TrEMBL record:
Protein name in UniProt: COMM domain-containing protein 5
Family: Belongs to the COMM domain-containing protein 5 family.
Ranges in coiled-coil conformation: none
Pfam families: COMM_domain, COMM_HN
Domain COMM: 163-227
PROSITE patterns in the cross-refs: COMM
Matching InterPro entries: COMM (IPR017920), COMMD5 (IPR037357)
Native species: Tetraparma gracilis
Length: 250
């Protein structure tokens, strides 16, 4: 009798291991997904949780809404410990599994937005990664509905260097020095203030100022010529049409 129970227990363990393998991200597909060159470990940990019986359609809907809100409004709707604890209590997942679920879903959506991946590619890749079909559809629908807001938020809240908020300058003329009684050499005295509140003052020789002015004008002219080129207009048009394509089609 004991041996029969032992065999049954071993069979259940084998069955659970097989289910876990089937629900996991297959190996060797990293380069074929929009996560290329490699799928983040947090996403690999998240995918089996999406197939868990604890993550019902209602719970996943709430998790997806929490995720998209945090990406669209990262300052006013961040994912904090109370939200993770609430998800853990409602789903029966441990705190670490609930954290992994949220982290993975954030990466799935934010990477698609950052890489400007077509909705059809996101749908195909998530299916190949063994994400359940209903949840793939929910992610794709959210991407399609909130794409503009997600991209705007990603640009506004991305990590970047401080921006130039003000620039002041004046011309100073050096009349004389210790070595020369008459110099009359003009220099540009500039003062910059950046978005982090720091102010910097520096001098620019008049020759370098003219060189800078010439190079800036040249770059602006080149940019205008590129934007006016017919090929660029066609490329922008194709890019917009690609984002509007139906998720089930190429």
């Amino acid at each position: 009798m004991a041996s029969r129970w032992k065999k049954a227990g071993a069979a259940v363990k084998i069955q659970n291991a097989a289910i876990k393998v089937l629900a996991s991200v297959p190996h060797g597909i990293d380069g074929d997904t929009y996560f290329s060159p490699s799928i983040p470990p947090a996403v690999r940990d998240c995918v089996p949780l999406l197939s868990s019986d604890s993550v019902t359609p209602e719970i996943f809907k709430g998790v997806l809404e929490l995720t998209t809100n945090s990406l669209v409004r990262p300052k006013s709707s961040p994912i904090l410990i109370p939200q993770i604890e609430s998800l853990s209590a409602s789903s029966g997942l441990s705190f670490s599994d609930a954290s992994a679920l949220l982290t993975g879903l954030v990466l799935i959506i934010s990477t698609a937005v950052r890489n400007k991946t077509k909705v059809s590619v996101v749908q195909r890749n998530l299916k190949a990664m063994n994400v359940p079909e209903e949840q793939v559809k929910a992610v794709v629908d959210s991407l399609r509905a909130l794409r503009s807001a997600l991209e705007t938020a990603a640009v506004e809240h991305r990590v970047s260097a401080p921006k130039l908020s003000s620039f002041k300058w004046r011309v100073d003329v050096v009349i004389s020095t210790d070595a020369l009684s008459k110099v009359f050499r003009p220099t540009i005295l500039a003062e910059t203030t950046t978005s982090d509140g720091k102010t910097r003052t520096f001098e620019v020789p008049i020759e370098q100022f003219h060189e800078l002015r010439y190079n800036v004008a040249k770059v602006l002219r080149n940019m205008e010529e590129v934007e006016r080129h017919p090929i660029m207009r066609l490329a922008f048009q194709a890019d917009r049409e690609a984002f509007d394509k139906d998720g089930g089609k190429e």
